[in-house]
Design a protein that fits this description.
Length: 84
Amino acid sequence: MMDKASIYQKINEILVEEFEVDEEIISPEASLKESLDLDSLDYVDLVVIIESNFGVKLVEADFDGVVTFQDFYNVVEQKMAVRN
């Protein structure tokens, strides 16, 4: 089981490597949508990559309350906790 820090680090690595996000703009309080500037296809790619890396299933409703990077980390973390 991954700890919080490992989950956050892995998500950040994915964002930097797959979506060419500048690591310096990634912070827990930052707006996910504004910081990433992803289109709808990018979000689909993000979901697929997160699912394959973390072994969780994400649905559209999971993103309803996601505003910040921390919100996104929490969703992935909660999904992993339920899975385990």
